[in-house]
Specification:
Order of helices and strands: HEHEEEEEEEEEEEEEEE
Radius of gyration: 28 Å
Structural class: alpha+beta
Number of strands: 16
Shape: elongated
Largest sheet: 9 strands, mixed
Helix content: 10-25%
Length: 316
């Protein structure tokens, strides 16, 4: 004889279905979160690499287009001190800042364009020369007020004049180097600095982080990298000892500018959004001042340690 299910059997069946359903939902949510998190991390990584490329170009260009009296390093903390002390680069330790001067520091299309003059004094910009932003530098129709001439020994500057007999349209005098300055004041308008700011911090950033900004002298600071936990800067200095050569990192400038081989940039940057589980974070090495403190709340975020040694080739 057929009989129906008892109440207990129905309850047990419902409980089993609920358990299986909860497991399926949990599995789906896990996969969904992973699917959402991965693209976010990839996007953040790509944006970070693009920003680091700009930082790299700026640091590599330190001293570009400057006369020899500005080829010094120091510990100035303001644009005024940087210019007064004739320093091409300076590391401020409180608050941490990297200050520098370079004629390619501004984001103008032709920033970084340069050339030389022939024996007649006509300016020549070689075909194929690229600006700091990757544009082709113009070789003709140049505007006199947009360029500054420096003698080959880099001891003094002079102005250029329009001259249609020159292929470039510009005459600056013989034995000169010619740099694009875009009508800006030389060299004060080409002073720049990187530092951390709490302004315009995105909501997704962990508590205690900041924005790395770039500020040009006289301009408003522009954000470069968000969600930065730590930013440190060091001089990479060459020294001779015991018949050999060694390198060291220091916030103090070298006595001889020729011993300055590069700038070390150290950062700890958040990549992706807050997670539901705690992660073991990356941290900075001893050559970046040692590890930094990660709070219990910050352990729910993914962190990327960045340690870059960037050569400076224009300080000679």
């Amino acid at each position: 004889m057929n009989r129906g299910y008892s109440l207990i059997e129905l309850i047990v069946t419902i409980v089993i279905i609920l358990i299986l359903g909860a497991g399926a939902v949990s599995a789906y949510l896990f996969v969904f979160r992973k699917g959402v998190e991965a693209p976010t991390i990839i996007k953040d990584e790509m944006e970070l690499q693009l920003s680091l490329a700009q930082l790299l170009k700026d640091v590599e260009s330190i001293g570009f287009g400057l006369t020899t009296n500005y080829l010094k390093a120091g510990n100035s903390c303001t644009f005024s001190d940087l210019l007064t002390n004739n320093q091409a680069v300076s590391i401020c330790t409180s608050p941490i800042q990297l200050l520098f001067m370079s004629l390619s520091s501004r984001s103008q299309k032709e920033s970084g364009c340069w050339g030389y003059t022939d024996k007649t004094g006509c300016a020549i910009i070689r075909t194929g020369t690229k600006s700091a932003l990757g544009y082709d530098c113009p070789t003709s129709g140049l505007t006199a007020t947009d360029y500054t001439a420096i003698d080959f020994y880099k001891t003094s500057t002079s102005t250029c004049t329009a001259d249609t007999t020159c292929p470039s349209g510009l005459r600056c005098g013989p034995d000169k180097l010619v740099f694009y300055t875009g009508g800006n004041s030389y060299p004060s308008d080409f002073a720049a600095r990187y530092y951390l700011s709490s302004a315009n911090l995105p909501d997704d950033c962990a508590t205690g982080t900041s924005v790395l900004v770039k500020e040009l002298n006289g301009d408003i600071a522009q954000p470069l990298i968000s969600c930065v936990h730590t930013f440190r800067v060091y001089y990479l200095i060459k020294s001779a000892s015991g018949g050999g050569i060694s390198f060291s990192y220091s916030t103090s400038p070298p006595t001889n500018i020729k011993d300055l081989k590069g700038i070390r940039i150290c950062m700890l940057v958040q990549v992706g959004k807050r997670r539901e589980s705690v992660l073991t974070p990356q941290n900075l090495s001893a050559n970046c001042g040692g590890s930094v403190t990660i709070t219990s709340d910050q352990r729910y975020y993914r962190w990327k340690a960045i340690e870059l040694d960037i050569p400076v080739r224009n300080l000679k």
